Each structure stands twice: as C-alpha cells, then as structure tokens.
Amino acid sequence: MNDPMHRRRFLGLATAVSAVAAAPLAFARNGDAPAPAGKPRLSVCIEALFTDVPFGERLAKVKGAGVDAFEFWGWRGRDLDRLGRIREELGLEVAGFACDTGGPLVAPGSAERFIPALKESLAAAKMLGCREIVAAVGNELKDLPRARQHENCVEAFRAAAPLCEEAEVTLTIETLNVLVDHKGYYLATSEEGFRMVDEVESPRVRLLFDIYHQQITEGNLIANITGNIAKIGHFHVADVPGRHQPGTGEINYVSVFRAIAAQGYTGFLGLEMWPTVDHTKAVREAIAILAEATAAPR
Fold first, then answer.
1. What is the pLDDT of residue 10?
2. DSSP assignment, residue 51?
3. Does a structural domain hold residue 269?
4. Domain containing 55 — which CATH number?
5. Domain contains 79
6. CA–CA gap between residue 170 and residue 146 (Å, rounded)
7. 18 falls in which pLDDT band (50, 70, 90)?
8. Three-state SS letters, 257-274
9. Is 243 domain-assigned?
10. Cβ partners under 8 Å of residue 19, min gap 6
C-alpha cells in the first residue's frame, strides 16, 4: 500500500468515513444553516480543494464530501449574490473569508486605511451570513522597527474591534510561516499573534492558528494551542511537509484534534490543504480523523 498510513489505521479510518458520510447533516429548524455542534467542525477551503470545477460549483462538492461549511480567500471580484444563493440552496455555512485591509497593517496610518475596507468586508460577510473574517498584516517593512510595525497592527485592530463587535463578526489575525511559503511576511509566530490579541482586548479579535504554518515555524503545537485556546478564533489544517491532507506527514492530527476538542473549542477547523489524492477522499479522511479524535472513550 502506497498510502503513508499503515493498513490497520487506514481500515479504521475507512470505517469511520463510511459512518460519517452515511449520516445525514444536521441543520437548524429554518433549514438555512447547520445546527450548533458541541465539537469542532470542519470547513473546506474552496480555493484549495475541488478546483477542477468552477468556483460556485465547488459548494456542491463540499456537501457531497460530507462537510457543511466552506471558506475562501478574498471576496472582491466574486459574485456574492450567486454564491449566497447556492449556499442557501445547499444548506451550507460560510465559515470565513479574507477581508480587505486597505493595505499592509504594519505600515503607518493603517488604522485609517483599514476602516473603510473593513466596513465593505463586513457588508460582504452580512450578505453571506458569515461570522468570521481573516486579516493578513502584510510583509515586514525593512526601514521601520519591528516594534513600531507591531504597534501599527494593534492600532488597526483596535480601530476595527468596535465595528466587528457591532456586526457580531470575529476578525482573526493570520500568522504565516516565512521559512517555506511566505518569505518576508511580518507575523510568523503565534506568540506575537497572541500578544496582539491581548493588547487589543476585544472578544471579536482573535488569532487564526494555522497548524501547518505553526508546525513549520515553532512546533510545540498542543501546548501552544491549549495554553491559548481562548485567543483562537479559527484553525487551518494541512500536514507538513507539502501542505497536503492530514495523515501524509509529521503531524499527529488525531492527538492535535483531540487536544483542541478537550478544550471545549466548537469552532471551525478549515481544511486549507492541497491533497495528494482525490479531493473527496482527502476530505473524508479528515472527517474520519476528527471523528476518531472526538469519539467518546470506551
């Protein structure tokens, strides 16, 4: 078997996949959105998965794979009316998308530039029934001290916080690794991201903890997650190396998901991954891993 998982584990995952895929999706009474869950939920990034079909058609692929939520990157240039109609028809939830920041948040004057762009992003979120948006801070400026760039980001997030609180939308700050994928990006460590969250002091400003990026940057995943779970608003999921589906690399996703669930986290785990196998198969394997991680002890 060429699959990196051992045969015994593969058979166990296959059994769990069959059970999860066969189960009906639970929806709220109005049929428009999934019912609240007591465990973490998966979301599929349609920028990375099901890219063999046009953008709007990927939503049906998400539902067919057994997931009831999706996310994407920038909203500008997208037909949001059509996306919203398809979402409602399929009973899917928009877990999040990237907001427009009006320019790099590390730069002077970012707070003033951010607000008009944020208002438009929040309007897009309302149109889609989305409760989370993601903000990247931009690349490091070589002619400005890092401490000042940090302050610029915090000032921008503080300015954004009241608008997000009023809209009941959580803004998550994105950290990225600078060793492999995003050389030059300012915010690489979860430690600095958590400090920004602390300094902003808003329940609507949190960190996007990308498990793939943070494994490359710093490791120590479970301790960093469990010690700061209240500051995390969203997770992204992919394995290391390669940014492929869980089970292909060095991260023990059963243990990581179990640790997240044990902290009472009921938000989204976004599958932002580039699979090495059929995309539906990769998603269903992730469903099975989450099911194994959150199964009640026997």
1. 37
2. T
3. yes
4. 3.20.20.150
5. yes
6. 26
7. very low
8. HHHHHHCCCCCEEEECCC
9. yes
10. 291
Count Cβ atoms below 10 Å from residue 207 Cβ, excluding itself: 23
Six token digits for residue 27: 């929806």
pLDDT in tens, 135-188: 999 999 999 999 999 999 999 999 999 999 999 999 999 999 999 999 999 999
Contact 290, 256 (CB under 8 A): no
Q: Degrees (nearest 5) of the Cα angle 156, 273, 27?
A: 80
Q: At what angle do helices 190-200 and 146-167 cross, to 10 degrees?
A: 60
Q: For 215-236, what is each residue's pLDDT tens digit? A: 999 999 999 999 999 999 999 9
**Residue 66, phi-psi category: left (phi > 0), alpha (psi -120 to 50), beta (remainder):** left
For tokens 């976004």, the residue is 270
Q: Facing residues of 269 across strands?
A: 42, 235
Closest by CA position to 276, among listed 16, 12, 69, 49: 49
Q: How far is CA 261 from CA 3, 68, 253, 268, in A?
A: 27, 18, 12, 11
Report the largest interatomic distance among the alpha carbons of the chain, rounded to a whole angstrom: 58
For residue 293, the one-letter residue type is A
CB within 8 Å of 154: residues ≥ 6 apart: 196, 199, 200
Query: b/e string for 100-123 if b means 16 or more Cβ within 10 A?
Result: bbbebbbbeebbebbeebbeebbe
Q: What is the DSSP letter of 139?
A: B
The reported pLDDT for the residue numbered 185 is 98
Give the model's pLDDT for residue 4: 39
pLDDT of residue 296: 84
Residue 294, both tokens: 């959150």
Residue in the block written with tokens 């060429």: 2
2 found inside a domain: no
Q: The domain containing residue 287 runs over which residues?
A: 7-294
* Number of domains the chain is built from: 1
